[in-house]
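User: Good morning. I'm curious how LLP would be positioned relative to this chain. Could you predict the structure with it bound?
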Amino acid sequence: MSSAAWVQRLSNDDCSSYLRQAIGEGLFERHDWILIHDLNLMEAKYAALDAAFASESLHAVAVKANPVVGVLRRLVARGAGLECASMEEVEIAARAGCPPDQIVFDSPAKTRRDLAQALDRGVVLNADNFDELARIAALLEGEDRGALKAHVGLRINPMVGEGAIAATSVGGRVSKFGVPLEEAQAEILAAFERWTWLTGVHVHVGSQGCTVAQLVAAAKRIEALLVTIEERRPGQIVDVDIGGGLPVSYDTATVAPCVTTYADELRRACPTLMSGRYRIITEFGRAIHANCGVAASRVEYVKTYGGSAMAVVHFGADFLMRPVYNPDDWSHEFVALDPDGRVKTWPAQPYAMAGPLCFGGDFVGREVMLPALTPGDFVCARDVGAYTLSMWSRHCSRAQPLVVGATADGPLEPLRAAETPRGVALDWEQPREGSS
Ligand code: LLP
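Assistant: Good morning! Here's the predicted structure, ligand included:
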């Protein structure tokens, strides 16, 4: 079985219809570029995830992929939990209405203060290493264990090898995250024997660039560990967090794997892990959001120097950091539209897509084949719903754009206001809230 929504990308025609709606609603009278997030498609992707796993599972969507609270609220309303990489993200999750016991807190740098707060709030807390477990143990000393609201797990590096993209792979022999399974098996078992409040195992092997086979191999290793822990401590493990990392398609030629296939493979390869004895936790981010987002910018200038054409648009390395700095691993498809928002269909020619930032390398795409562009046209960048706004860079201090949500009917819903020049200036000014 597969779910069409999980692999669906917003098409060129979808970009056109949302852009036309935005133009009709007058948004481009006030904005040079906007971000549109298709909330229906996002909800359909979440529904596919929910249907693929047992109903008791917790699907904690990774906040770092898209922290816009209005977007997260939609997911939380559907029953989603939220995976947080910082206390700030825990705060964001709370603002999105996520109950504490559906918040999963993962970070390799949790301070004692973070840990105390996380235990207090009663979140699912995945410790990254043994020293962190010792800090948790110290905090729990003298506490009534029966009253412990939080669930505590340990992140394991399953050591299944790196994926295709080094910077987002965390399952190699040496990783910044988790305790290495082969190297530290004895200590892992000792930790579970020593601390009865340690009731979860956590694994995540990477983001984009990993295959389903790699994700399943990681789960299989975790299952073997589970079985060993069970022999010594029957019933202690409650949660099995299998992380996120299912890749998405960023181009027409690639078909992304479906979550249903992944869950079926897991059931086949890891029957104990998937037996229903454990609560399965997932942490998908990219696959929920990336294909739901479109950035629409007016083309400000078109320049032709030395026979090469460049189109200047309003998003650059501030918004598409990875494609600008690491174009061999990351790229997006672009659509050219006329001033009324209709897809242009004339013969294509190569364009360099120049961003607005003040450095020579700020190109969000090179040799992009597009119909002839003139100032006043629009360009949409596709599949920008994840790890774009959340990786925003302040370089050159340009304002973050308006974010609107699209639904099947009704006007575009404002989800996050655009920043203003004054707002950005104040952001750089001290003192401000929180400083002392
Ligand atoms: N869980 C943990 C512990 C993670 O570190 C991540 C992503 C996820 C879940 C979600 O993975 P996803 O399902 O979204 O692939 N574009 C960014 C990617 C960083 C991803 C980091 N972790 C970058 O280029 O750095």
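The first strand starts at residue 33 and ends at 38. Residues 143 and 263 are 38 Å apart (CA to CA).
Let me know if you'd like a different ligand tried.
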